[in-house]
Amino acid sequence: MSITRTLDGPDLPAGFPFSLATTANGTCFISGMPALGDDGKYQPGTFAEEVALAWSNITRIATASGLTQTEIAYVQCVLADIDDYSALNDWWRRQFPDAAAAPARFTFQAGALPFGCKIEIQAVAVHAR
């Protein structure tokens, strides 16, 4: 079994004591990402702004790991406030207008998230090639 790790790269959040992603046997586990800038610092905003930036981080990490957005099979969304669930669903429908092409998703509320962020997204992708 070969294991590769994505630690950093151009346009990726930096400064963490863990891998941004670990790939083993064609499955890529992408670390949880809130709305972080390339410097690894939290970029506070509206829920819509934060979910868009968190997702951008996930897809950029997937790309740096040799995957595409369509190879993301499972997503876990952690909300600071479960009242944002409807806003997340609205964003999700715009991101994935064809539900048949959308990744599986699990969403829950945490007691608190890093930096006081509104959402953190984690994903699992599978090399389809």
Brief rundown of the structure:
With 129 residues, the chain is of the alpha+beta class.
Would you give an account of this structure?
By secondary structure, the protein is an alpha+beta fold. The protein has a single domain (3-126), classed as 60s Ribosomal Protein L30, Chain: A (2-Layer Sandwich). The protein is 22% helix and 29% strand. It has helices at 47-64, 85-95; strands at 3-6, 21-24, 27-33, 72-79, 104-109, 119-126. It has a six-stranded mixed sheet with strand order 1-2-3-6-4-5, with helices on one face. The model has no long low-confidence stretch (mean pLDDT 93).
From the spread of the alpha carbons, the general shape counts as globular
Q: Assign the CATH topology.
A: 60s Ribosomal Protein L30, Chain: A
Helix content: 10-25%
Low-confidence stretches: none
- End-to-end Cα distance, whole Å, is 17 Å
* Annotated CATH architecture: 2-Layer Sandwich
Count of discrete structural domains: 1
Instruction: Please state the structural category.
Output: alpha+beta
Tell me the strand percentage band.
25-35%
Write down how many β-strands occur, each being a DSSP E stretch of 2 or more residues: 6
Task: Write out the CATH superfamily name.
Answer: RutC-like
Q: What's the alpha carbon Rg, rounded to whole Å?
A: 14 Å
CATH class: Alpha Beta
Largest sheet: 6 strands, mixed
- The string of secondary-structure elements, in order, is EEEHEHEE
Number of helices: 2
Mean pLDDT: 93
Identify the strand order in the major beta sheet.
1-2-3-6-4-5
